[in-house]
Design a protein that fits this description.
By secondary structure, the protein is mainly alpha-helical. It has one domain. Keywords: Membrane, Transmembrane, Transmembrane helix.
Length: about 110
């Protein structure tokens, strides 16, 4: 299971589409987001195809494209978390603390 050029191309296509649609952020951030999406598609497409048992090349390209978009969404989320942390370091600690309390609290109201 190596990196196949088709998966890189699918991820790169997703990166280009995302860059055209999502015009927020600096040029460096947008390039970083596209690179993360491309790597996400290149490395995770073979595993996704293996899990779903798909073998058709068209499906491979579509899965790579979708995984590339998902990787870019993760990259954008991490950039936003980093910017938020840079502006207010204490907020991240409070947010993580409240999340952990909600996850591990047996008596939560989220039933």
């Amino acid at each position: 299971m190596g990196i196949q050029p088709a998966h890189l191309i699918a991820g790169l296509a997703g990166g280009i589409v995302r860059a055209l649609i999502y015009k927020e952020g600096t040029l460096v951030e947008r390039i970083f987001v596209g690179a993360v999406g491309t790597l996400f598609a290149a490395f995770l497409t073979p595993f996704a195809l293996l899990i779903f048992g798909a073998t058709a090349p068209a499906i491979s390209g579509a899965v790579g494209f979708m995984l590339g978009l998902m990787g870019m969404s993760f990259a954008i989320a991490f950039i936003k978390i980093g910017k938020d942390y840079a502006n207010n370091p204490g907020k991240l600690k409070d947010d993580l603390g409240s999340l952990l309390l909600r996850v591990f609290n047996k008596d939560s109201d989220d039933k």
